[in-house]
Task: structure prediction
Amino acid sequence: IFAISGEDEFTDLLKASATQVTAFAKAPNGGLYASTSNLGKVFLLGATTEPVGSYESDVFDARIFSRWGRAEFRGVGNVELFARSGNVDNPDRNWSPWKKIDLLKDAEVSVPPARFIQWKAVLRAGEPAPRVDSIALNYLPKNVAPDFDEVTVQTGARYQSLPKPVGADTSMSVGGTQPPRFDSSPPPIRDRDSIGVRWAVHDDNDDQMVYSVYYRGDGESRWLLLKDNLTDKFYSFDASLLPDGGYTFKVVASDAPSHSPEQALSTEKESTRIEVDTTPPQIDNLAAVVEGGQIHVTFRSHDSFSSIKRAEYSVDAGDWQFIEPLGQLSDSKLESYDFRASLSPKSPADSSPVAAGGTDGRGAANGQMEHVVVVRAYDRYDNMISAKTVIRAGATTNRLAVQR
Result:
């Protein structure tokens, strides 16, 4: 029951032992009846003040086992302050007894370290009238190590730092729990030449964190430092820094910025294994010959780490066409190809013969017909290589490989 005396000004008159106060009625001599439910009772508030009154605070949850320091009291009159602590949220279950706090001496809160605490103010009538304006309890939570939720590694992705919001609130709540922190990582940007590492970690102390990222290749026992002193919860780097192979990453989180070296704690978490492949496959034994109205092409493609994913061809700068490997299934590091491609009846090299010694701008000279066949192959990670061969009637086949 509160007495409201003005805007944002009220007095806590009574904390009833029932759940709800449902009605008021005037009592003789300026008193007030208050009826309640759960349980049903009737309380009488007298018109005169009592010689002694008390107020118990709500149970405060420090969230972590904590040591209690000094109390800070602001008020006037004859006020005594008490405190008790426990490790469950119910004060009736194994809490310490009420312990008086000497406000005239050091105001030390000499209750056992615990997670929960409650204070009580006892006010005694006198001059001036007792009043409690504010009470604050200082405490030191036990430092606990940070805890990882996940570590993920994504190839072909890059994370870019977001600008810090201007005027961001960095204050802390004095009388209650701190507001939650929402510092999720930005979405990844597609970049096939990068590898992005991202992690989610929380710290029950809300300490400032610093991170280090390590990696280890398949068959290796030693972790190698990739980057340290990170404050973001993500890191991207050039994939070409790592040779082709399988790798596992590890992130170490430390609360060192918020603690002395002796008190700082750290924890670590490994990622699942990933494969890195930045080297394109190779094309060997590319050969092409005109047989009737078709070009017969053969070649091989191989990769040192991953399987060949697909291959395509183009004749005389035409559209790219899919090539099926021998065996029809692309699941090996070495694939062989043997196919025939039709010649276009409108090919400039066929329909526009060139006089001896001349050229048509497409590499056909001395009246010879010319066709250019380009093939390209991709490995499992979309690394690509292309190669071409030039076919001239009556001339030796020339080949030129181009890597991208």
Notes: DSSP finds one helix and 27 strands in the chain. Residues 2-48 form one domain.
